Amino acid sequence: MSKNKLSKWIPEICYEEEADGLSSHIPFIQVPKEEEMPSVLYVFESRETGEHEPGLEGNPVPVVELDLHQYADLYTLKNKLSATVYDEVRCALGLEPLKDAVAKGQKITSNIREKLETK
Fold first, then answer.
1. Distance, CA of 75 to CA of 85 (rounded, Å)
2. pLDDT tens, 82-105?
3. What is residue 109's three-state secondary structure?
4. Where are the domains of the chain?
5. Among 7, 8, 6, 24, residue whose Cα is nearest residue 16
6. What does each C-alpha distance from 37 to 15, 23, 47, 52, 59 come to in angstroms?
C-alpha cells in the first residue's frame, strides 16, 4: 500500500497456466504504478471438516474451517533485521542462511552459463 495515503487497492494473487510463461507457475501480484508490494499478505486457509449443514435451500453444504495465515516479504525483513536475525528467520522457515543460499545459486548460474557456452 502506498505510504502517503490510505489505499483501497487489494492485491490479487495471479497464476500463469503455461510453464514457459513469465513467472513459470510461480504466483505473482500485478502492482499498480502508484502502489507498493505489500510487506505482509494475509491468506485464509479453507478446509472442509467433513461435516455438512443445511444451506439456504435446505441442501447439505460442507462445513468449512478458516485459519488465517500471514506471509512476510523476506526482502522487507532482510532490509529491517540484522544479518544474524534474518538468517534465524530463514532457518525457521526451512531455508538456508543467506550466504549459503547465494553461494549455491551462484554455482547453479555458473553451471548453466558453462553449458550454454559449450553449445
1. 14
2. 999 999 999 999 999 999 999 999
3. helix
4. 81-119
5. 24
6. 17, 16, 28, 39, 42
